[in-house]
Amino acid sequence: DIKKSIEKADLHLRDGSTEAFNKLFCKKIPIIVLSAGIGDVVELILMHENLLTDNVTVVSNFLKLSTDNNGLSTIEGFKGEKLIHVFNKNEHAYIDTHQNDTHLSGRSNVILLGDSLGDANMDGGIQYDTVLRIGFLNANLLEHEDGY
């Protein structure tokens, strides 16, 4: 069971994440978590940290499950038409899956946070008044330092 595994795991978000999420929630500022990982896991981690609030939208690859007569779930694949991966992880992935959302309309400023160079382009070339790009360099510091 994924939920039990997350509850037992020694997972930690980056320092300051909880405070940032809470401030953004209080100010009614939307957060989009765009992940090429498994969305079910991302949501469960945010739930475990009490951070999956009304202003948070997870755009990711969600599991398509079927349940048999004994209550056992089997993974059949992923929901949706397209998988999100490092080469299409941008705002178009959000637009494709959340066409009717209005909580971003009228927003002209974006903060992009990511841990790969490709994450710096998650805005997909859509024009905003201000885009602040922040990259986290986690490994191979000397090798990737110039790119960051």
From TrEMBL:
It comes from the Eukaryota. GO terms for molecular function: 5'-nucleotidase activity; magnesium ion binding; nucleotide binding. InterPro entries: HAD-like_sf, HAD_sf, Pyrimidine_nucleotidase_eu. The lineage of its organism: Eukaryota, Metazoa, Ecdysozoa, Arthropoda, Hexapoda. SUPFAM superfamilies: HAD-like (SSF56784). It catalyses: a ribonucleoside 5'-phosphate + H2O = a ribonucleoside + phosphate. This is 5'-nucleotidase. GO terms for biological process: nucleotide metabolic process. It comes from Schizaphis graminum.
